[in-house]
Amino acid sequence: MWCLLAVVLAVGVATSLLLRGGSPGASAGPSRSATRAAAGDALAPPGASEPRVPAPVEGAMGVPMQVGVDVVTVLSANTDAGRPPRSDRTAALDRVVSVRVRYHDAGREPVLVAPTDWLVTDSERALYAAATGRRTTDLRQQVLAAGRTVQGTIEFDVRSSATGLRLQLDSDDGLDVAIVPLS
């Protein structure tokens, strides 16, 4: 009886491996043709291509950009707006970059506006996050109603030696990205 059970089990394993394109010595992991799936996503059928992520929107100062359902405009930038407050200052981050941006919700649903969706990058690919706790950073996280517009200032602390500064907007889902050169 045990011999019959062992044979049935061995035949089942061999059949399963052969149907998946493997061999008895092959790894039991997913095949190379299976598309990598994020948590909660369904696996694409073998041979299917990866979903395409849109290219970043390359913008310019003062020019409106369509980013998802938002129309975003970088109104102005000061790449040498002084020194950070003493409480925020470090030896490395000793210069303030200040930008003024405008959001317009061109969709039919409210959207989230957040200064933390913005970063400054430099030519060495360093990332600088928004300094959100300051009075001078007046763009607050808020829900923007459809058809409405809001604008405000966001500050970033950067290295004084940083060059090639670019302002980058990343949506929460990572699919909508806009980049505007600052220097």
Can you walk me through this structure?
With 183 residues, this protein is mainly β. It folds into 2 domains: 1-52, no CATH class; 57-181, Immunoglobulin-like (Sandwich). The protein has one helix at residues 2-19; strands at 57-58, 65-67, 70-78, 95-105, 111-113, 118-121, 127-129, 142-144, 149-158, 166-170, 177-181. The longest helix is centred in the first third of the chain and has 18 residues, at 2-19. Residues 1-44 have low confidence and may be disordered.
Keywords for this entry:
183 residues, 2 domains, disordered N terminus, Immunoglobulin-like, mainly beta
What's the shape?
A: globular
Helix % is: under 10%
Structural class: mainly beta
What is the topology, as strand order, of the major beta sheet?
1-11-10-6-7
CATH architecture title of the largest domain: Sandwich
The domain tally reads 2
Q: Ends: how far apart? A: 79 Å
Sequence stretches where pLDDT stays below 50 over 5 or more residues: 1-44
CATH class of the largest domain: Mainly Beta
* SSE order: HEEEEEEEEEEE
Number of helical regions: 1
Q: Could you report the average pLDDT, rounded to the nearest whole number?
A: 75
Strand content: 25-35%
Largest sheet: 5 strands, mixed
Summarize the structure.
The protein has 183 residues and is mainly beta. It is built from one helix and eleven strands.
Layout of helices and strands:
Elements: H1 2-19, E1 57-58, E2 65-67, E3 70-78, E4 95-105, E5 111-113, E6 118-121, E7 127-129, E8 142-144, E9 149-158, E10 166-170, E11 177-181
Parallel strand pairs: 1-11
Antiparallel strand pairs: 2-3, 3-4, 4-9, 5-8, 6-7, 6-10, 10-11
